[in-house]
């Protein structure tokens, strides 16, 4: 995504730098601010592999993988990246259930109404 750094930088007041890694605090008004790592472009693929294909991932669908990614990382355009990755997964494509054939439509002729 071309504007990803700009979108993160727009939330400057929520950014936190720890050990040369950017974190973003949750914007919710809670006592415990949750920190999520701002994932650089180079680590997005590795994060997707860990979350979707890893031991704890178990090749869940796009929504489940997206929830896991968003709980740990922050990056604009994550939704599109996760769904594209899950759609291209060969293991998921093999195991995905086939669409059931539908019954043919019939036309019914009725008599007078009522």
TrEMBL record:
Keyword terms of this UniProt record: Signal
Integrase zinc-binding domain sequence ranges: 40-98
Protein name per its UniProtKB record: Integrase zinc-binding domain-containing protein
Any single Pfam family the record assigns to this protein: Integrase_H2C2
Lineage: Eukaryota, Metazoa, Cnidaria, Anthozoa, Hexacorallia
Signal peptide per UniProt: 1-28
TM segment ranges: none
Signal found in the keyword field: yes
